[in-house]
Amino acid sequence: MTDITLAIVGATGLVGKEILAILEERKFPVKNLVLLASKRSTDTVLSFNGSSIKVKELTQDSFQNVDIALFSAGSSISEKFAPIAAKSGTVVVDNTSFFRMDPSVPLVVPEVNKHALKHHNGIIANPNCSTAQLVMALKPIHDYAPIKRLVISTYQSVSGAGKEAMMELENHSRYLIQGKVADPKEFSHHMPFNLIPQIDVFEDNAYTKEEMKMINETQKILETEIPITATAVRVPVFVSHSEAVNIQTDKPVSVEKCRELLTNFPGVTVLDNIQEQEYPTPRDVSGKDDVYVGRIREDISQKNTLECWIVADNLRKGAALNAVQIAEELIKLPVNVA
Amino acid sequence: MTDITLAIVGATGLVGKEILAILEERKFPVKNLVLLASKRSTDTVLSFNGSSIKVKELTQDSFQNVDIALFSAGSSISEKFAPIAAKSGTVVVDNTSFFRMDPSVPLVVPEVNKHALKHHNGIIANPNCSTAQLVMALKPIHDYAPIKRLVISTYQSVSGAGKEAMMELENHSRYLIQGKVADPKEFSHHMPFNLIPQIDVFEDNAYTKEEMKMINETQKILETEIPITATAVRVPVFVSHSEAVNIQTDKPVSVEKCRELLTNFPGVTVLDNIQEQEYPTPRDVSGKDDVYVGRIREDISQKNTLECWIVADNLRKGAALNAVQIAEELIKLPVNVA
């Protein structure tokens, strides 16, 4: 199927704009592009493939004749409008957490589990940014040596919290260097030159919702009950999330084997040459499509366990790129999109 | 013993200046203070208890009549001058890594293992900053329920790399905000708004020296062979190191019990009220003496395992404070200092 009518809900947001750029880069076969946002953004004009497109207000009638809609406007918008879109025959790729754990909604990273797409009912969920990059690195290892347990610490950039959060990090960093201090608005604590060991709200088990998303979504995508623990920390980095991951497997995986498995997996790049001090950093990975893995080593504390450092652009593979990749898979399906 | 003649080797460095401040704060019984540094710093005058003291050049003759010398001038200086000082009857408290794993040298965090001080031969080692705060939080847990394995991810501030590194983070952050970029000098990669998953050089097992220091020193101080793995990451924070630590014990430790054990341990503060978004951040902990622990929760992936978040001022408990505390213990000993 080609000549798609595609809608972007939340077109003026960080992820919405990244989706536009990626659709252009990948020459996605868009015939009509419908840009949707809240009323206050409806004067915005965005550029796509050389044309200027005016952003329209999202309403219940926005989805007539729309084949695919990519939603990135927050959970409450998805909760309300994704079912409306699906009902009108649009296939929704939803970037929010709202439908991810719904058993009737496939949660998809195409390189990992595109087979799950076949069973969609009009809504497909895009995983949390920190999950997407994690499962990309885990999948080839898990297929070779089933994973027994994961211990994860994240180092997540502020772009995961949106445009205003990025602006606050920039502005408040400038103030601090000038000897001034401004109260945080977008964060629970000061973000410049600081760390915040909380992303999203706390759940009853004292994990944050962000930590539980990583845990639950990873299990759903890998179709396993692997025990996972995670600590999610916001760091003063603009773009790209990093993860220190301890991976226990049920049989030995040598460092060489792990490198080979990862290198052969589409969308993963191994950058692991410690003699030359080469390993992924968020600055270097920003703007790239691949998930980068470095610092691969055998855990000296436990048999059959690997340590690694996984970095990816959270706006690309963690959000916009993965959504567009799902749309690319959808248009290859024979019946679901029509 | 009172009226000590005390020398600070590396008096003009970050840790040296912090030692001066802490000696004043704690009213350490200094009769004569000898400030030593390399020749290029010998014009510097530093203030102590209202007097101005000129920094002298460190030479082989610097230690005559010095009771205690606190060394913070790098491993090669300690390697050369600590034995000279010890030979002349001075007790050395060494902040560098040079002697830490020497079996004849006690490696001491006073709250944890001050008993080890009794067996010194003129040189006592101060642990690595990331180790000191770690063992403070682990000791009360380990005494109650022996630890079986640790998985650690660190988030370490640039002050651990010295004054120039702090200046580079500040200056290069300003440049970046102004749209300019300067090549890193103090770091292997750009530090502003970035992460560097390497501290110190790599060892043969692909761990960094910093990671192996944490592992080996923690085992030495806790007098155990606990299996430990660690990933050490430099973050764009000026002061205070943070650690996400996964602690497996050989019997259950409830969150309440863990809080009680930590609260009752001297030098540890539990800051763990997630309903109010209270947990330690490096910014809030900078300038404080205590080791702060928050995000305490039962690991949902494994029995008898806790997760926690440990933050301390790396220049204080991680370096200067611990060195002064060792000196305080030394002057209580009956014979070793004379």
What does this structure look like?
2 copies of one chain form a homodimer. Chain A is α/β, with parallel strands linked by helices and 338 residues long. Chain A folds into 3 domains: 4-126 and 319-330, NAD(P)-binding Rossmann-like Domain (Rossmann fold, 3-Layer(aba) Sandwich), CATH 3.40.50.720; 131-156 and 199-314, 2-Layer Sandwich (Dihydrodipicolinate Reductase, domain 2), CATH 3.30.360; 160-192, no CATH class. Chain A is built from 9 helices and 14 strands. Chain A has helices spanning 14-25, 75-87, 110-113, 129-144, 163-177, 209-222, 255-263, 282-285, 316-330, and strands at residues 4-9, 30-37, 45-48, 51-54, 56-57, 68-71, 91-94, 123-125, 147-155, 228-231, 241-249, 268-270, 291-298, 305-312. In chain A, strands 5-2-1-6-7-8 form a 6-stranded parallel β-sheet, sandwiched between helices. In chain A, helix 1 crosses helix 9, helix 4 packs parallel to helix 6 and helix 4 (129-144) crosses helix 9. The termini of chain A are close together. Chains A and B meet through strand 9, helix 5, strand 10, strand 11 and helix 8 of A and strand 9, helix 5, strand 10, strand 11 and helix 8 of B.
